[in-house]
Design a protein that fits this description.
alpha/beta; binds pyridoxal-5'-phosphate
């Protein structure tokens, strides 16, 4: 048993007192681990890879799970998850959002999305800058993306021990979110190593993997 159920319960209490939602990041972890946490009441799970998500969805179809897609998403793979995905956190281009919209139309549904904001100083992280975000909202305004709903923003800070830097990056996300008048926006930031900081800076949805499921290979 690699699931740290004690830690889970501790984090749940901590988050509930602050009205922060928990997405349990189960990427690269077995279905048995998901079931274990599900049986403790966890409904929201996050995955990074399309094929893995589809396999887990199929295996756990009869559970009432909200599947969050949090990894980099290639446009040509949206079709595999469109019918069941609960929230896509990682929209990092207009082209991707247009494809999500197209697949949502095909499935006769609205797909909820977050815009991934580029906040880290590391070159390796995906995300949109302020101009690209504005362009997306302009497209929405024009009525070209009626089958997606932008619920808020997501970000990943630099993987760094520099608390000041990480705080500044989170504040950048908050600043961008305040430009757009989304009602009760979802602000998805904070992972195992920085979720406490993230909550202090205004996150209301954290994505935690290794603290719950142990380190990944
Ligand atoms: C893997 C991942 C997480 C969880 O990371 P941990 O450090 O294991 O908590 C959160 N968000 C994204 C986008 C990830 O890829």
């Amino acid at each position: 048993m690699s699931v740290n159920t004690e830690k889970y319960k501790e984090i749940k209490v901590e988050l509930e007192s602050k009205k922060v939602q928990l997405v349990a990041v189960s990427k690269l972890k077995p279905i048995s681990d998901i079931k274990e946490l599900y049986n403790l009441g966890q409904k929201d799970f996050g995955e990074n890879y399309v094929q893995e998500l589809v396999e887990k969805y199929e295996a756990l179809k009869h559970q009432n799970i909200n599947w969050h897609f949090i990894g980099h998403l290639q446009s040509n793979k949206v079709k595999y998850i469109a019918s069941f995905v609960y929230l896509i956190h990682s929209v990092d281009s207009l082209k991707l959002l247009q494809e999500i919209n197209k697949q949502a139309v095909k499935n006769n549904k609205i797909i909820d999305c977050l815009l991934q904001v580029y906040i880290a100083t590391e070159e390796t992280k995906y995300g949109l800058d302020a101009t690209e975000i504005q362009t997306i909202f302009d497209e929405v305004q024009k009525g070209n993306l009626n089958n997606i709903s932008i619920k808020g923003f997501m970000g990943m800070a630099s993987f760094s021990d520099d608390v000041t830097l990480v705080r500044r990056e989170f504040q950048q996300l908050i600043k961008i979110s305040e430009v757009y008048k989304i009602t009760n926006p979802i602000l998805s930031f904070g992972m195992s190593q920085d979720y406490k900081l993230a909550i202090e800076e205004g996150s209301n949805m954290v994505r935690i993997g290794s603290l719950l499921f142990g380190a990944r290979n």
